[in-house]
Write a structure and sequence with these properties.
The strands form two sheets. Strands 4-5-6-7-8-9-10-11 form an eight-stranded parallel β-barrel, surrounded by four helices. It has a three-stranded antiparallel beta sheet with strand order 1-2-3, with no helix packed on it. By secondary structure, it is of the alpha/beta class. The protein is built from nine helices and eleven strands.
């Protein structure tokens, strides 16, 4: 027995020496979740959008997120922030410093779900599209439009070049990528071209040959090898049907809404902590493997970044308020869960 215990202790010691993220690792998936170095992991995720807070806040936000029970950070990539003028990129200035945001996650031992889009919605000005895009010849947004798809693919390629040092083979925090955003809500309006565009998104994502899986959220008819994920206030009721349709994929909930955004003139939305906890517990009890709070920290819509009639505050009644302070009892209740 002593020999066995000594061997187990040595094994644990060897395992603990590898810091993930921090040391190279692999990411795959099975029905039981995203797999880190071949082992399925239960990922508790919170959305923190880097353009909605000052870089000086990022380390504190992530430390509080980790203390609150999270092991993963979720963020969109905002095209109109990074390419306000066609061909002129900014991934280094102030709130556009995506590499610094990813490095902060790595330093805090947190994984990252990077949702490139590049359409993000997010109650963000123009859904994240840069204004110059509408003036491209023959462009039609989010459908099988050669002009649109050319620019979209170019930008995604640029983002992947920028974030390459943060992929798992280099010990980086990125464990999954997203293409498009809730396209299932729009696809039927475009008819056959909507179907062709969704398939193109899948082929394009796979064509980049990244070392992590790709997802499409709220996508009823996902392209091959793209993981479809769920969004909503409650999603456990969808799991039985999901298992029948997609037995090869893990059940991932990319947006659990802890409340809602606020428009000018509306009352501030709130959602009870107990209700959120119940939704999360039912999700995992029924076989869910990943959940992301949208938003964990909402932050601020600086300048003219807010979408139409959206408040400057993007508080969302999240777990960390607009200023990065813990929102009690919600923060504590879900930490305990």
């Amino acid at each position: 027995m002593a020999v066995v215990l000594a061997a187990l202790a040595a094994s644990v010691a060897c395992t603990s020496q590898k810091q993930v993220p921090g040391a190279p690792y692999t990411v795959g998936y099975s029905t039981r979740g995203l797999e880190i170095d071949g082992q399925p992991r239960m990922l508790m995720t919170g959305a923190i959008h880097y353009p909605r807070s000052a870089p000086a806040m990022w380390d504190s936000l992530m430390k509080k997120a980790k203390k609150g029970g999270l092991n993963t950070i979720d963020t969109y990539v905002f095209w109109n922030m990074h390419e306000p003028v066609k061909g002129h990129y900014d991934f280094a200035t102030d709130r556009a410093n995506l590499p610094l945001f990813l490095e902060t996650a790595r330093r805090n031992g947190l994984f990252v779900m990077l949702r490139i889009g590049p359409y993000v919605c997010a109650e963000w000005n123009y859904g994240g599209f840069p204004q110059w895009l509408r003036h491209e010849p023959d462009v039609v947004f989010r459908t099988y439009s050669y002009s649109f798809m050319r620019e979209m693919k170019r930008f995604i390629g640029k983002v992947l070049d920028v974030v390459d040092p943060f992929m798992p083979e280099y010990g980086g925090p990125i464990v999954a990528l997203q293409i498009e955003n809730e396209y299932g809500n729009m696809q039927s309006f475009f008819g056959r071209d909507g179907d062709r565009y969704a398939e193109w998104c899948g082929r394009t994502a796979q064509g980049f040959n990244t070392s992590v899986p790709w997802v499409m959220c709220a996508q009823d008819r996902p392209p091959a090898s793209i993981i479809p994920t769920d969004n909503g206030f409650y999603c456990d009721q969808n799991l039985a049907q999901f298992r029948q349709k997609y037995p090869q994929f893990p059940a991932m909930w990319t947006e659990l809404w802890p409340a809602w955004f606020q428009r000018w003139g509306e009352a501030a939305p709130h959602r009870l902590s107990e209700d959120i906890a119940y939704a999360v517990a039912k999700w995992f009890a029924n076989g869910g493997t990943y959940v992301a709070y949208y938003m964990y920290h909402g932050g601020t819509n600086f300048g003219r970044t807010a979408g139409p009639f959206i408040l400057t505050s993007y508080d969302y009644d999240g777990f960390l308020d607009e200023y990065g302070l813990e929102n009690w009892p919600k923060y504590l209740h879900l930490r305990d869960l």
